[in-house]
Design goal:
This protein is 38% helix and 21% strand. The chain is of the alpha/beta class. β12, α10 and β13 form a beta-alpha-beta unit. α1 packs parallel to α8, α3 crosses α7 and α4 runs antiparallel to α7. It is globular and about 70 Å long. Bound molecules: 1,4-dihydronicotinamide adenine dinucleotide (NAI) and magnesium ion.
């Protein structure tokens, strides 16, 4: 296992094709959440490094990158996807060490990253404008153009998937990117940049500056040379990003998590539902924006669903990423404290079941036992606030109207699912649920590279993934010619 795949140096930034230390030479420590040990030093980029990266991205747009025909950009993205596939194990191990996610989940993230590259490679030359019938003597058409320099501030929970969906789409449209990975986990961002460079991505098309959110992140969000900002993370920081972008009237895409419900009706196939109900809560130790943390169940099936989920929770084992169990550690001690705080808020509820942290899990790791709560009123803080840990609440309902009202009764609106055999109900609920994605008799659908994704309310706005992302990462120009 190497922390330096393809010779990548984790203490450097990538700016304009050159691997360089931050101007201050300062570093931050990266920790292994499975045992609390220090993994390596990473660069502590600051505003001055962000300035250089934005400058380099602008130069790429004016230079070789900006002149490439769309299909050539697609070819490069395709080569990057192939190179990612050639490095599945190295990238998966890096992500498992850095984030703490079980190896099989890290592997799935690498494959998703490759799929994003393939998808956006294929799409790069297929997005075009329209001709618009207008007045006599006119020809009117639209041009879809890149924003220019795009800023990408990403979190630590799914670095590779989020790079795939945001950087992949931005590059496909011909933008040049400045990526600020999270201070808790940034190794795969650097390894990906190295892979992209080796695969022939022109200098400056992708720049990476690791650092703290309050330093490098804030500098990127406020930079006058950035023309679009894509952010995934907490609601609080999302608001700061939107305010910083407002200064220069720059568009933002915000993906801020949720409190996503699954609705299990009286006619549901509970056997089929059970694995989805549970996995959607514990995958990546619950540190998933689209985690399903609320399970709403018709009272006639409540005991059955609760018993089935409790059985599954009872069998869950949490341990080091490399042991590849059901659940890894949380990303950091800080995140463990946040999640334990939420579990403490459930003191007035009943714990239906808990998983175990394996006996030989290192004492310094950020482990939390997966916890299934019952007896929460829909207004309870555990049924309202994003926990971002392996914690779910099961809530009963009596009617469809009540189920919809509970489902829509939080400030979030990211994902929802409906478990029912009734086709009319499926169609009705798909319209009535407040969410950017609704799944019918499934949840999550395997990552969904092709499926537009994003939220409403506190979950954010804008769409990533699928073709939709390409519209977000570009702007439309209307050309009207009067020729008589
Ligand atoms: P965060 O929002 O602070 O971090 C996400 C990214 O934003 C990181 O790259 C960070 O460096 C950057 N950032 C932080 N402050 C910034 C600022 N002032 N300006 C610009 N960039 C800044 O999230 P954090 O602290 O890691 O996690 C706290 C909670 O946020 C979690 O418990 C969870 O509820 C939520 N979260 C949601 C995510 C999602 O996928 N929607 C991902 C990560 C966290
Ligand atoms: Mg933070």
């Amino acid at each position: 296992m190497t922390l330096r795949p393809l010779g990548m140096d984790p203490a450097l930034c990538l700016i304009g094709g050159a691997w360089t230390p931050p101007e201050s030479r300062d570093t931050l420590e990266l920790r292994n959440p499975s045992d609390g040990s220090t993994l390596c030093a990473i660069a502590r980029g600051r505003a001055v490094d962000i300035d250089r990266a934005v400058e380099a991205a602008g130069a790429a747009i004016r230079g070789a990158w900006g002149r490439l025909p769309n299909f050539e950009r697609g070819r490069i993205l395709h080569r990057i996807g192939q190179a990612v596939l050639e490095n599945v194990e190295a990238l998966a191990e890096l992500e498992a060490l850095d984030v703490g996610k079980p190896l099989k989940q890290a592997r799935a993230d690498v494959l998703a990253l490759a799929r994003y590259m393939e998808f956006y490679a294929g799409a790069a030359d297929k997005i075009h404008g329209a001709t618009i019938p207008y007045l006599d003597g006119y020809t009117v058409y639209t041009l879809r153009e890149p924003h220019g320099v795009t800023g990408h501030i990403i979190p630590w929970n799914y670095p590779m998937q989020i790079i795939g969906r945001s950087v992949g789409a931005a590059l496909a449209m011909g933008n040049a990117c400045v990526l600020k990975p999270a201070e808790e986990a940034c190794l795969t961002a650097l390894a990906f940049a190295r892979i992209a460079q080796e695969a022939g991505l022109p200098d400056g098309a992708l720049n990476v500056v690791p650092g703290l959110g309050s330093e490098a992140g804030a500098a990127l969000a406020a930079h006058p040379g950035v023309h679009h900002i894509s952010f995934t993370g907490s609601v609080g920081v999302g608001k700061l990003i939107q305010m910083a972008a407002a200064e220069h009237v720059v568009p933002v895409t915000l993906e801020l998590g949720g409190k996503s419900p699954q609705l299990v009706f009286e006619d549901a196939d509970v056997e089929a539902a059970l694995p989805f109900l549970t996995n959607a809560g514990i995958q990546n130790a619950g540190q998933t924006c689209s985690a399903s943390s609320r399970i709403l169940v018709h009272r006639s099936r409540y005991d059955e669903v609760l018993a089935g989920m409790a059985d599954r929770y009872g069998a869950l084992r949490a341990g080091p990423a490399m042991a590849d169990l059901d659940v890894g550690p949380l990303v950091s001690d800080r995140q463990r404290e946040i999640v334990e705080g939420f579990i403490a808020k459930g003191a007035d509820l009943e714990i239906a079941a808990r998983g175990v942290v394996v006996a030989d899990a290192p004492a310094g790791g950020a482990y939390v036992s997966p916890t299934l709560f019952t007896g929460a009123a829909p207004e309870h803080s555990l049924a309202q606030e994003e926990v971002f840990g392996p914690v779910q609440v099961v809530i009963p309902f009596d009617t469809e109207e009540e189920a919809i009202s509970i489902a829509n009764g939080t400030a979030y609106g990211l994902v929802a699912s409906v478990w029912s055999a009734d086709g009319a109900r499926q169609m009705r609920l798909a319209r009535k649920l407040r969410a950017g994605q609704v799944f019918l008799n499934n949840y999550g659908a395997g990552g969904g590279v092709e499926l537009p994704f994003g939220g409403t309310g506190l979950s954010g706005h804008g769409r990533e993934k699928g073709f939709e992302a390409l519209y977000g990462f570009s702007t439309l120009k209307t050309v009207a010619a009067l020729h008589g």
